[in-house]
Amino acid sequence: MRYEMRFSGSGGQGVILASVIVAEAAVAAGLEAVQSQAYGPEARGGLCRAETILGREKIWYTKVIQPSFLLALTQDSLDKYAQNLAPDAVVMADASLSLPACVDPARALMLPILATARDKVGKVMTANIVAVGAVNKALGLFDEAALTEGVRRHIPAGTEELNWKALAEGAALVTDEQAALFRRSL
Amino acid sequence: MQGNEACVEGAIAAGMRFYAGYPITPSTEIAEQCALRLPQVGGRFIQMEDELASMAAVLGASATGVKAMTATSGPGFSLKQENIGYGCLAEIPCVVVDVQRSGPSTGLPTSPSQGDYMQARWGTHGDHPVIALTPSSVQETYRLIIRAFNLSEKYRTPVIFLMDEIVGHMREGVTLPRPDELIINKRHISYHDGANKQCYAVPEGKFVPAMKAFGQGERYNITGLAHDVSGFPTNNNAVAGALYTRLMEKIGRNLDDIVRVEEYMLDDADTAVVCFGGTARAVMSAVEQARAEGMKVGMFRPVTVWPFPEAQLRARLPGLKRVLMVEHNYGQMLLEVQRVAAERLPVGFLGRIDGTVIPPADILNKLREMEGRENAQ
Amino acid sequence: MPSELIHKYMRIDHLPHIWCPGCGNGIIMRDVAVALEELIDDPEVNVSREKTVIVSGIGCSSRAAGYMDFNSIHTTHGRAIAFATGIKFAHPELEVIVLTGDGDCSAIGGNHLIHAARRNIGLTVITFNNDIYGMTGGQYSPTTPTGDRATTAPYGNYDRPFDIAQLAAGAGASFTARGSAYHTRETTELIKQGILHKGFSLIDVFSVCPTYYGRKNHKGGAVEMLQWQRDNMVPASRYYAMSEEKRREKILVGILTHNEYPEYTQEYAKLLEKVQTGK
Question: What residues contact B300, with CB distance under 8 A and at least 6 apart?
Answer without folding.
Answer: B261, B263, B266, B272, B273, B274, B312, B313, B316, B323
